[in-house]
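Hey,
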Amino acid sequence: MNKVIITVLGKDTVGIIAKICTHLAAEHINVLDINQTIVQDLFHMMMIVDISTADESLEELTAAMNRIGEEMGLRIHVQREEIFEAMHRI
């Protein structure tokens, strides 16, 4: 399994999860876990996805998430799980 962490932060609007998940499904990227929170108008989501069967590379996924983020006024960060884990190890 090739896991990637996707984090999303921005003003809450209709369709954020749908837009991101539609892209992931089209590229055969499986969502393993998803957690989202809304505090007042601030939307935060963290996803763990498996890109083992993806039709696009990690670089292409990152570029696509950046485009979606720009379109929707969000900050979207894509990172390999092992890098995420190393950064958050105490």
